[in-house]
Write a structure and sequence with these properties.
The chain is of the alpha+beta class. It is 32% helix and 26% strand. It is rod-shaped, with a radius of gyration of 24 Å. The N and C termini lie far apart (66 Å).
Length: 159
Amino acid sequence: MQKGFATLEIIFAVIIVVALTTCALLNAVRMIDNVALDYEYKRLYSELRFLQAVSRSTSVSDAGTGQNFASTVSPVMKISPDKLSYQIKRGNDELREVHKMHYIANLDFTGKVYNEISFDDTGKANVISNSIILTSRLGKSKKIVFDSVGRIRGGRDNE
């Protein structure tokens, strides 16, 4: 009777464990990349919707007194594609702090590069580009589209 394991059995067991670990790690890296891209995509979309809502609320007035509570300065999202960051400001006031997108490899605009996005009081986007494209470190990309009437489309995977 033989006691213990043969050398070949140990080698095959190690090869199988290494192969399974490699597959698991590659899938984990892909999953982390997808989750990070999805997070940044949904956050940017949410911030654009916030900017749109704040822009709509600037035209609020009190019907009883006729007093207008509107700010004379519309809020603007300032985007720095080279620094992969954005911030929402109204004049010199910060409405949101600067958000740096750590997990994004590229932030691009279709058409002309335009680093400021604002909305009028009806919610229409005042942009030159048709969309913002976020690209992850592994090359997967998602797009936020500004349609012909200035609405934003995105925030969900099926759009």
